[in-house]
Amino acid sequence: MTQHLVQYQGFWVNPDAALKNLMWIQDHFKPRPTDIFLASFPKSGTTWLKALIFAIVNRTRYGFADHPLLTTGPHDCFPFLYAHLYEKDRSRFDLDGFPSPRLLSSHIPYTSLPNSMTDSQSYRFIYICRDPKDVLVSKWLFMNKLRPKELAPISLEEAFELFCQGISHYGPYWDHVLGYWKANLETPEKVLFLKYEELKEEPSVVVKRLGEFLGHPFSLEEVSKGVVEEIVKLCSFENLSNLEVNKSSVLKLSTQIVIDNRHFFRKGNVGDGKSYLTDEMIKRINEITSEKLFGSGLVFGS
Ligand code: A3P
Fold first, then answer.
1. Could you identify the atom of ligand 1 that is nearest to the CA of residue 47?
2. Among 29, 52, 190, 273, who pairs with 134 as Cys (CB 3.0-4.6 Å)?
């Protein structure tokens, strides 16, 4: 959102995009009590969780053999709240015309959301966070893929400095995570806080938790029929990243912001960030994390 950021990250054609999104939400968005809102800091596992929530909520509507996720990218099944801002054909994103429950996502920090969303008792938020080292590296590689070819790639050193200084479209990583963490501690029935790492380790457990939180608990019959495992398999990195729609089609956020769906799928591993960062970088980011999260009860591995 600053000139500094635009210079470094060049590809973001509209430098005020995040601010514009935020202002639109604050001024115009009319939440419904049944809305399901997915929030994340970019590169924390948004695409994966979109697919999982879509599959969980709609599991009685679609069979696994001809599921919409086989032919439609997760970001089109579960749009960004502000996607329609950029859409010429607004009818595609007529939020008021969306059937309930509406599935909407955003990267906006909790503390910047309008009171109409944070005060409502029935509104559901699901937040996903991820180890900052993996987020930083995933984001750096992603940004370079989106960067216009005529601009030199951003170096890891530059990306690292920006991340540590908290310069990003959605503010500092640690403030973002803490905002939703605190909301989860205060109102756990309203804000579910997930970690990418726990989703990787025990996807079936998390899928069942999601079902309960969203008011769509899995019945004993569904569990014994293997519905949970089917959802996990459908939304797995291996499955989604190999689908034609996710290999060759694009996500159109605007006429200027068009992203190849394949860029949302890289490796999908835990701890990959450490293989790019120097020991010194790892030490510094771990220190910032310990300091910022001190006393919150939220921890990440070293
Ligand atoms: P890596 O770059 O570490 O591989 P987001 O969806 O928030 O943009 O996050 C993207 C990250 O999630 C990327 O991480 C991507 O590979 C990973 N990812 C995407 N789909 C996934 C899936 N189905 N399972 C696990 N990880 C996934």
1. 6
2. 273
